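in:
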């Protein structure tokens, strides 16, 4: 390496990477340690200021290590530096609930390692040969302190610190050597197809130019353009020109993750060298019979941290592809947790394929990637029409009164201090519930955050920490733990509260619910989008674009582009039957609907899907249909299908002909599935896809005023319709037909929202 290559890391990051050992364990340990640590530090530091004349707290120490042309800048903050009687003492403070009599000198070598690292930097900076390291343990329950001191000379410290630095640099060197290979492969990389489809090159160019300008792009690109490869390819080329370091492909559906993986496979065939990992949900990838991440219940959790560094170094040396099957194979090979392996690999890979929540959800986001290093990420956000509703859920939270009542029953007589707080929360919720009683309503909402309730929740969390550590295995433990996590989420969301939120009070029979509801998630999403190197937001149905820009976080600086379908418009025949399908008229039209369905599927034989407005209506229509025409060749979607049942449903379209699948608009079969050719030749869409009327949707309607009804009902509805229609034509050779049943499609408003290339003909019922 001719020039010095610079990396930055914290003292704690290096120490934990090199020395951390032991097992994965998701059984409760204090989740508030950061806060507790701050409190413990503050108390001990204040005491030290009184005891010692020359005392500094929170001292920033920084040092550059130059090893083989690699510059590693390491920075950290020493808890305290004491100067007394010619001695200099670096103090490292650790908080604990453990009885201090059980803590000895060698209790935790990582704690000593941090202190020694700080000691070395201080010695070098101040040209001294000897220093004392003090490790002080602070018991949170009783404020007792136990300290251990040891004197080190500069040679001992230098030898120790460089052993850590050199070990850490081993993987840095592996990564840097691969970067040369990666960049050369990107330079030589050609588009993986012989030619571009209509609109495909333009989309790729728009992506490349947006990344070049560190911008945000909203792109509506219909099925057939090849959105996935047209976003990944220009992102790769951008990285090859030192624009960004990591490509994060974010999706809402498992099937779209598969499409992204297939795109990378095509690029690998073209010579790409690029390390990509797919993060699959823990529940789906777990190798254990039950999702229990602890060494007593899972062999893959045992000694995970002791093994993982060598595993990571080995894997990134020999492989580039870490998709779900690969992760499972390696997890079995090394006897380690596959989910945690994918998370750890994500820090060392060049590309990540994962769900939205890992980037945006405040409770589960990968903070190391999306907070500490987000400025290096190129975000490719697929199926972006789903992000609005998903984001609202991520940034909303609720508390049920019945849960705190259960907690009171569990802890009464066991934890007096905790019971006092939980009982106060119950009383506070009763007080808030009176607002409904005073107006004689079961539901209301207003832009008000209940500060006293939040304050009590924080007290509950602090007090529950000790209880949950001590009470493991006792009756009702899970109830307390569940409410603890609900309270934490409630507090986290409350800290985001603004004029884009409201608080909903709801009474349902004996239940009372307080919900913090995010009406407009744009500001929350914008923090991640603007913090990234660049963000490409795309979907086949990102229309109307202003709606999505308003709610996802676009502004006047954001770029936008729209493409027409590349397929021959004559391949899709679209029909409209003017039938009043508004909610109050649906019931009386069931007979007519059945006749329309039967006539349409009989005219041209093949496989069809019928999309109904709701599961309730689906059941009624299907029951009537099979009563008249029989159930031969028909299948119906049940609610809450398992992955296995979903697979069985879809297999009917591959294995048989003349199948009619009854399902719902906006359900699991209206997007993200691929049935090309004769597997699906037509669809019947009943209604305009309106979401169910709810207090949340009505709140959205009120909030956006003149655009309110469209933002809460019309636009989300038409998106579901367009997604359902999109199942029919999947390739340039597909031909199909669609019947829309609702007289609202005849209005100017709906005509303007439907694709301009649709040549809609009126459909006639023959008898």
């Amino acid at each position: 390496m001719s020039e010095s290559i610079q990396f930055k890391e914290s003292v704690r990051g290096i120490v934990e990477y090199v020395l951390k050992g032991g097992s994965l364990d998701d059984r409760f340990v204090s989740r508030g340690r950061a806060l507790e640590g701050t409190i413990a530090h503050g108390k001990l530091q204040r005491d030290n200021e009184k005891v010692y004349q020359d005392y500094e707290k929170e001292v920033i120490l920084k040092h550059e290590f130059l090893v083989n042309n690699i510059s590693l800048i390491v920075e950290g903050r020493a808890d305290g530096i004491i100067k007394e009687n010619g001695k200099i003492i670096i103090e490292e403070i650790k908080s604990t609930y453990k009885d201090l009599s059980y803590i000895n000198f060698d209790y935790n070598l990582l704690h000593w390692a941090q202190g020694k690292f700080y000691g070395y930097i201080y010695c070098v900076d101040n040209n001294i040969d000897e220093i004392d390291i003090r490790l002080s343990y602070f018991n949170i329950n009783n404020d007792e302190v136990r300290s251990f001191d040891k004197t080190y000379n500069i040679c001992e410290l230098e030898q120790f610190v460089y052993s850590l630095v050199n070990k850490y640099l081993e993987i840095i060197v592996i990564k840097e050597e691969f970067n040369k290979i990666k960049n050369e492969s990107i330079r030589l990389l050609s588009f993986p197809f012989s030619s571009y489809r209509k609109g495909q090159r333009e989309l790729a160019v728009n992506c490349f130019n947006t990344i070049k300008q560190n911008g945000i792009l909203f792109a509506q690109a219909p099925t057939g353009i090849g959105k996935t490869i047209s976003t990944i390819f220009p992102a790769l080329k951008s990285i090859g020109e030192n624009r960004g370091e990591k490509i994060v492909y974010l999706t809402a559906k498992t099937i779209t993750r598969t499409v992204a993986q297939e795109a990378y496979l095509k690029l690998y065939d073209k010579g790409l060298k690029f390390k990509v990992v797919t993060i699959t949900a823990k529940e789906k990838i777990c190798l254990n019979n039950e999702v229990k991440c602890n060494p007593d219940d899972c062999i893959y959790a045992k000694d995970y941290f002791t093994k993982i560094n060598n595993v990571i170094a080995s894997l990134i040396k020999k492989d580039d592809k870490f998709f779900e099957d690969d992760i499972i194979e390696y997890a079995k090979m090394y006897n380690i947790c596959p989910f945690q392996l994918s998370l750890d690999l994500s820090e060392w890979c060049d590309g990540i394929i994962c769900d939205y929540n890992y980037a945006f959800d405040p409770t589960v986001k990968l903070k190391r990637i999306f907070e500490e290093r987000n400025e290096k990420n190129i975000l490719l956000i697929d199926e972006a029409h789903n992000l609005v509703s998903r984001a609202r859920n991520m940034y909303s939270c609720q508390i049920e009164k019945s849960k705190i009542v259960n907690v009171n029953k569990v802890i009464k007589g066991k934890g007096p201090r905790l019971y006092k707080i939980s009982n106060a929360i119950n009383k506070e919720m009763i007080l808030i519930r009176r607002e409904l009683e005073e107006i004689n309503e079961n539901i209301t909402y207003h832009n008000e955050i209940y500060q006293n309730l939040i304050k009590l929740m924080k007290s509950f969390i602090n007090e529950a920490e000790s209880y949950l550590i001590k009470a493991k295995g006792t009756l009702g433990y899970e109830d307390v733990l569940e409410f603890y996590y609900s309270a934490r989420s409630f507090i986290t969301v409350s800290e985001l509260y603004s004029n884009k939120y409201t608080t909903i009070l709801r009474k349902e029979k004996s239940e009372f619910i307080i919900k913090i509801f995010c009406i407009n998630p744009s500001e929350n999403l914008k923090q991640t989008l603007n913090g990234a190197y660049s963000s490409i937001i795309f979907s086949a149905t990102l229309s109307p674009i202003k709606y999505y820009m308003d709610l996802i976080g676009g502004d006047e600086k954001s770029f936008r582009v729209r493409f027409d379908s590349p397929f021959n418009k004559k391949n899709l025949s679209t029909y409209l039957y003017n039938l009043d399908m508004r909610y109050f008229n649906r019931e009386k039209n069931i007979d007519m609907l059945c006749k329309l369905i039967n006539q349409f599927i009989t005219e041209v034989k093949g496989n069809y899907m019928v999309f109904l407005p709701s599961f309730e209506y689906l059941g009624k229509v299907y029951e009537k249909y099979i009563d008249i025409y029989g159930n031969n060749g028909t299948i119906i979607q049940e609610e809450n299908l398992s992955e296995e049942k979903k697979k069985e449903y879809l297999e009917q379209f591959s294995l048989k002909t003349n199948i009619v699948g009854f399902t719902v608009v906006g359900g699991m079969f209206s997007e993200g599935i691929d049935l090309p050719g004769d597997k699906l030749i037509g669809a019947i869409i009943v209604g305009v896809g309106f979401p169910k009327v709810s207090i949340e949707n009505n709140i959205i309607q009120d909030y956006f005023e003149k655009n309110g009804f469209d933002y809460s009902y019309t636009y989300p509805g038409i998106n579901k319709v367009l997604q359902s229609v999109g199942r029919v034509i999947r390739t340039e050779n597909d031909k199909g037909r669609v019947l829309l049943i609702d007289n609202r499609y005849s209005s100017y408003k709906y005509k303007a929202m439907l694709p301009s290339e649709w040549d809609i003909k009126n459909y006639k019922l023959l008898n």
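note: Residues 31-36 have pLDDT under 50 and may be disordered.
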